[in-house]
Amino acid sequence: MRPQLLDKTRWQFAKHLTLNHFSGEQGIDVLKETLKLYDFEQTPQSKALIEAITDMQICPANARVVQQGRVGFCHGSDIVLEFSSIELSGTNLFFFGCVLSHFFSQYTAINSFTRLSVRFRGQSSCFYRWPASAGGQPLL
Predict the structure, then answer these.
(1) Per its UniProt record, what Pfam families does this chain match (predicted)?
(2) Which residue ranges of the chain lie beneath pLDDT 50?
(3) How far is CA 100 from CA 19, 49, 138, in A?
């Protein structure tokens, strides 16, 4: 399936070359705009998942890394996405989170990681936390 490429769409794709466009006060709006851009089929389920995102927090994080018997520490980012409705299908939300975890890991800087957590509004516990990864590969 080929997406429709409008003039504004081409510019939006060009903006995706850095992760910095998710920072700041408009970060959640930019994330939703980006997800809509890649939602080629535009099903009601995918639209509902995107619109259910109510908050995004990105915090610096450190994690212990063991590779080939050596121990080190790595700096990265913990990303917490908050969803508005607990009525969302758990299966759909899990797979949506898998895609987002992989998506964010593609934007991480060298020698860094991203770790995505998903929770519902009004709850302090996470629905699911994906492992830290960089470039689509699990790191820790």
Answers:
(1) T6SS_TssF
(2) none
(3) 13, 12, 14
